[in-house]
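Researcher: Please predict.
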Amino acid sequence: MSIANIFYLGIKEFRSIKRDPAMLALILFAFTISIYSAAKALPEVLNKAPIAIIDEDHSDVSRRIIDAFYPPHFIKPVLIAQSEMDAGLDAGYYTFALDIPPEFQKDLMADRSPTIQLNVDATQLNQAFNGSGYIHTIINQETNAFIRHYQSSSPPAIDLAIRIRFNPTLTKVWFGAIVEVINQITILSIILAGAALIREREHGTIEHLLVMPVTPFEVMVSKIWAMGLVVLIATTFSLLVVVQKILSVPIAGSLILFLVGVSLNLFATTSMGIFMGTTTRSMPQFALLMLLVLIPLDLLSGGFTPQESMPQAVQYIMMFTPTPHFISLAQSILFRGAGLDVVWPQFLALMVIGGAFFIITLMRFRKTMGLS
């Protein structure tokens, strides 16, 4: 009888979502357009940065340096006079102004260590910070190649060979698409579970459930499996259609193993959503509480910034939430093709955290319903 009650109460949740066009539109948007736009809109570290060059040397090496700046990192360099540099930077026409001094090639060949002046518009913070390093590397590469062409030099004692695994071309679409799917799983599961409870309260149907021969446990479990299944189906569709087919992002590991991890994460996050639903009385209150919960979960989970770079206290606190463990197993499976022998600690952590959230939420739910 308990299993039948849980099943039919879950079917009721499906019918409630079916009658809510706004929620259906949110689910469709979150797992299609949102993922596609997040993957495609993720900016490069340095993309089409405007640069001006003052060539006072007019030598072979200066022309070589000028030709080394090209898209997509930089736009085609603009050659200007030194008197135009300050005005151009003030007006924001270019972010970088490179001044190659007179007799630069002569001093370079004479091993006098000449210097090149780089002027940067630091109001363009991201481009200024990353672009300076790019320019420094480009100039060193071009001048060293020029010197080696005219002078014999001994090979370096150490030759660094860089090999990039899992994303050899450093394609940001691969990273952006997977991370957005992970984020939407957490966000939608909390929203759907919390909204399901608040919708019952706003429509007055929660009282109807309480006079029926069902227990708070059955009501809560029905919402968890129904809302979790909705998110699980949407996740599968998004990975197979949006990520793999449309965005052409390869998935290295087992999709089945990842979906098992998603299910464990949904067990924890839907319990969180119901707990938040018991602490609020309306959807506007629930939305405000969502801001306080989702932003820290998103920013401190390790999806965009490695947890190792965060304060030790923050790392310790986040270990009691499901998102860092879920992101770790998701990246291991989808990016690196890890198996269960690698991600079992994250699976175990999600089971423990999910069980703890479920027990706490059930106690809170019974108290809210006046059944404690």
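Model: The chain is about 65% helix and 5% strand.
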